[in-house]
Design a protein that fits this description.
The protein is an alpha+beta fold. It is 43% helix and 18% strand. It has 19 helices and 26 strands. β14, α11 and β15 form a beta-alpha-beta unit. α1 crosses α3, α5 crosses α15 and α5 packs antiparallel against α19. It is elongated, with a radius of gyration of 30 Å. Bound molecules: adenosine-5'-triphosphate and magnesium ion (MG).
């Protein structure tokens, strides 16, 4: 509808205006369309999507955030859901499909309630109340806290997260790799209170009072580093990426804050895990290099040694990392030298070579046995390196060197000139390792740096048949690494396979009955909306969703009546189409993933439900 000047009111809105129920229904329809796209990819038997862009590049994925990021979504309300998936991805790393599905279900039900005459404000108030109660119940009753998290829990969580992905078939292999990789980058958190402050939950008759270290504050600290998560160069047969994420934490129940002093917090910076992708061989030939770093580069000359090991008297191999050209010294532009005797020219040339030799000599005498540079190395310099038995590689990616510098405890040198105008090379800038060797991987060579002496870094070399597969393996592994990190940092987890959703749904239904306010209906709709996860899981597994979900709810209702405590962990068994104890089956997820996805989904649904007017301004309007 185009808005015109309403005579007498003086009001003029140029452009299109849609209001009331029209806009709400429009928004909800668009959001549902987005959610329907990812719906079929949820769960261990979910399917993948193939996305082809305008230049014909193909991407095959199961990851909700990746699918949505590729879509060109124009509708502003639908964009909210796309952003929601990205938010979940950067904050938690996993659960991006679930969060979008839950949000869209909340929206659909919210809209239906508004159509049937309930004021949006009541719907929103009910949703907020339901969320608060759900989170409080989840923390109180559903969270499993283990004092000593053993590998089995971590491996199970990693397996659950990768069960729906391309590496799901080899989840035993990759889950162990993910756990080892995250554990290998463990470091003491310098500011324990920021890294993870305990969540205190005071439950008083259904009222929750929450004192929580602001999740958003922690996120801000780290979100900068999470942006470079997948740096993949498609032109190379080997491309590299770093999986990383922020350091937000989950905590549950009451943990006295004084515990921090005696029990130091650890963090697991995923940026220190370097993921390299190399074509060829099967996925199970992927390997993990603990405390090692692989650089996608090769020796500059065949005359250089292929491996440099520490010797008994000098066990460390020192590495110089440069961000400059190593080339024959030339006189500056514009310098004119008039020579009368042709022999002098030879002398000038000799001197130029000597200057170069001295410069290289300074790097070598500082102790460097490996020299890596982001720029070029000319033949003359190479000759000196070959003579000294130094392994030198040129044109290394700068990001790689930056991370190698961190891993080996060195620094990148940009210039050799010092304050006095002389050229020196500070031995402090050298990184240390146990060995550096060139290995043939796939179609090219890589330099493996093992036993890094710096702050710890590990490398995972992924092998796979083609680029699509490698990219998808990288994304799946990223999800699992995030999950393991969350588990390690919070030592809390919940049961997966629809168990949490069913239990919350049963509890919220009961909770709604205890209220005599207008939010009651909205809370009970919220309860039903959560069931969309087990329902979708069952539908995707080609099972009877109504029957399975009914069984699941019945089990949790029985448990909550206090009749059978063992039913608490009941979730779906999607291969058999039955219900089972998912704790025993090892289907577990980090608690933070569920809590955050509930919060984000509700907030997104509320954001869209609040809108009752959409004005598209005509061009030229402010
Ligand atoms: N073996 C299993 N049995 C039953 N349910 C499972 C199993 N493995 C995973 N699930 C469930 O599958 C859901 C996760 O599916 P999936 O990984 O496809 O989506 P997501 O984590 O929401 O999104 P994404 O991984 O794309 O970011 C969770 O609800 C989890 O409990
Ligand atoms: Mg997942």
């Amino acid at each position: 509808m185009s808005a015109q000047r309403a005579d007498g009111t003086g009001l003029f809105i140029g452009g299109q205006r849609e209001s009331g129920q029209d806009v709400r229904t429009g928004n909800v329809t668009a959001s549902l369309a987005v959610a329907n796209i990812v719906k079929s990819s949820l769960g261990p038997v979910g399917l993948d999507k193939m996305l082809v862009d305008d230049i014909g590049d193909v991407l095959i994925t199961n990851d909700g955030a990746t699918i949505l990021a590729q879509l060109e979504v124009e509708h502003p309300a639908a964009r909210v859901l796309v952003d929601l998936a990205q938010l979940q991805d950067s904050e938690v790393g996993d659960g991006t499909t679930s969060v979008v599905i839950v949000a869209s279900e909340l929206l659909r039900r919210g809209n239906d309630m508004v159509i049937s005459g309930i004021h949006p404000t009541s719907v929103i108030a009910g949703y907020r109340l339901a969320l608060k109660e759900a989170v409080s119940y989840l923390k109180r009753e559903m969270v499993m806290k283990v004092s000593e998290l053993d590998d089995e829990h971590l491996i199970n969580a990693a397996k659950t997260s990768m069960s729906s992905k391309i590496i799901g078939k080899e989840s035993d292999f990759f889950a162990k790799m993910a756990v080892n990789a995250v554990k290998s980058v463990k470091m003491k958190s310098s500011s324990p209170m920021v890294a993870s402050q305990p969540v205190q939950v005071e439950a008083k008759g259904g009222e929750e009072k929450e004192v929580e270290s602001s999740d958003t504050a922690t996120t801000k600290v780290d979100s900068g580093s999470s942006k470079d998560s997948t740096v993949a160069s498609k032109s190379n047969s080997m491309s590299q990426s770093s999986s990383n994420s922020n350091n937000t934490n989950a905590s549950s129940k009451v943990v006295p804050s004084s515990a921090n002093a005696s029990n130091p917090r650890y963090k697991y910076p995923l940026s220190a895990i370097h993921i390299l992708k190399a074509h060829g061989k099967s996925s199970t030939e992927s390997h993990f290099i603990p405390n090692g770093f692989a650089v996608n580069a090769m020796r500059a000359s065949q005359g250089m040694p292929t491996a440099i090991e520490g010797t008994p008297d000098n066990p460390t191999v020192k590495i110089a990392m440069l961000d400059m050209n190593l080339q024959r010294h030339r006189m500056a532009m514009g310098v004119q030298v008039i020579v009368k005797d042709p022999a002098e020219i030879e002398n000038i040339k000799k001197r130029e070579m000597d200057i170069t030799k001295e410069r290289i000599g300074k790097i070598i005498t500082a102790g460097a046995r490996v020299v890596l540079t982001t720029k070029g190395v000319d033949d003359l310099c190479m000759k000196y390196f070959v003579e000294a038995g130094v392994l030198c590689a040129r044109r290394c990616a700068k990001d790689d060197l930056k991370r190698l510098a961190k891993a080996t405890g060195g620094k990148i040198v940009v210039t050799m000139a010092d304050m006095d105008g002389n050229e020196t090379f500070d031995p402090e800038c050298l990184g240390t390792s146990e060995s550096v060797s060139e290995e043939r991987i796939g179609d090219g060579e890589m330099l493996y740096v093992t036993g890094c002496g710096g702050s710890g870094a590990s490398t995972i070399v992924l092998r796979g048949a083609n680029e699509y597969m490698l990219d998808e393996m990288d994304r799946a592994l990223h999800d699992s690494l995030c999950v393991v990190k969350r588990m390690l940092e919070s030592t809390t987890f919940v049961i997966g396979g629809g168990a949490v959703e069913a239990a919350l749904s049963v509890h919220l239904e009961k909770y709604a009955e205890t209220l005599n306010t207008r939010e009651q209906l909205s809370i009970s709709e919220f309860a039903d909306a959560l069931l969309v996860i087990p329902k979708t899981l069952a539908v995707n597994a080609a099972k009877d969703s109504s029957e399975l979900v009914a069984k699941l709810r019945a089990a949790h209702a029985k448990n909550q009546k206090g009749e059978d405590d063992s039913l608490k962990h009941i979730g779906l068994n999607l291969t058999e189409g039955t219900i089972r104890d998912n704790l025993l089956a090892g289907v577990v997820e980090p608690a933070i993933s569920k809590i955050k996805s509930l919060r984000f989904a509700t907030e997104a649904a509320i954001t869209i439900l609040r809108i009752d007017d959409r004005i598209t301004l005509a061009k030229g309007q402010q």
